[in-house]
Specification:
The chain is α/β, with parallel strands linked by helices. It is built from eight helices and seven strands; from the N terminus they run E-H-E-H-E-H-E-H-E-H-E-H-H-H-E. The chain folds into two domains: about 200 residues, NAD(P)-binding Rossmann-like Domain (Rossmann fold, 3-Layer(aba) Sandwich); about 40 residues, no CATH class. It has a seven-stranded parallel beta sheet, with helices on both faces. The mean pLDDT is about 95.
């Protein structure tokens, strides 16, 4: 299937590794010009080499912190007219809510709610003017089923979800969609790190905990970054113009709810 995004300019945040890199790889494979955003230059250079080598696509890097205003300025200077925006920022650390004060909460809301909102503010009107736009916010399964120990992430990402539910309906008639992609546990540092944290909380060996955990889940494994990237690329395609304001779970069937 031709996704119709060849030549489109795509800003991919958190793209030097993990899920963001998977999204960049998939869109580059479809011929999009991808702008990889992350904080560490060496990781970005490695990702650029890998993605351009495998796809032959034009790949640009932007060394910037998307959770800072100056970082977002730098991203927009590098790609002022994006067709596609993938919002993605590292999640806050797990812990006990009794230990979190204002700083921890403000950092979480800034990283996992406000930074995405501000990137949408900076890009959506231009997409409307050009008659095409795809915005995907990488959030978490925790929006649907809060995860123990991830209270900062649960709260901040739920706030972004509520905001998107209102704003997405304003732009879809202009062929600009805004959706949220909710990953479960994937083969990333974040995914394995969370299971290691749960093992420590329960006082058991991490490898044993992982084996027992996947024995209880429908898919019985981590998701792959390639699977995630392919899903994101479809949501960003010209085939998905009738999908907006949705929360799309990609979790191997782990969420057990009907709705």
């Amino acid at each position: 299937m031709d996704l119709g995004i060849a030549g489109r300019k795509a800003i991919i945040c958190g793209a030097s590794k993990g899920l963001g890199k998977g999204c960049a790889m998939a869109m580059a494979g479809e011929g999009a010009q991808v702008f990889l955003v992350a904080r560490t230059a060496s990781d970005l250079e490695a990702a650029k080499k890998e993605i351009s080598g495998q796809t032959g696509a034009q790949v640009e890097i932007v060394v910037a912190d998307v959770t800072s205003d100056s970082g977002r300025d730098k991203i927009m200077a590098a790609c002022p007219r994006p067709d596609i925006l993938v919002n993605n920022a590292g999640g806050p650390p797990p812990g006990d809510f009794r230990d979190w004060r204002q700083k921890e909460w403000f950092d979480a809301v800034n990283g996992n709610m406000f930074s995405a909102i501000d990137m949408i503010r900076r890009t959506v009107d231009g997409m409307v003017e050009r008659g095409f736009g795809r915005i995907v916010n990488i959030t978490s399964i925790s929006v649907k089923t809060p995860m123990p120990g991830l209270g900062l992430s649960n709260g901040a990402r739920a706030g972004l979800t509520g905001w998107v539910a209102g704003i997405a309906r304003e732009f879809v008639r202009h062929n600009v969609t805004i959706n949220n992609l909710l990953p479960g546990l994937f083969d990333t540092g974040r995914g394995s790190g969370y299971l290691a944290y749960r093992a420590r909380c329960e006082g058991v060996d991490a490898d044993s905990y992982l084996t027992d955990y996947f024995a209880r889940t429908p898919a019985g494994r981590f998701g792959t970054s390639d699977e995630f990237g392919a899903t994101c690329a479809f949501i960003c395609s010209d085939k998905a113009g009738y999908m907006s304001g949705q929360n799309i779970l990609l979790d191997g069937g782990e969420y057990a709810g009907t709705f």
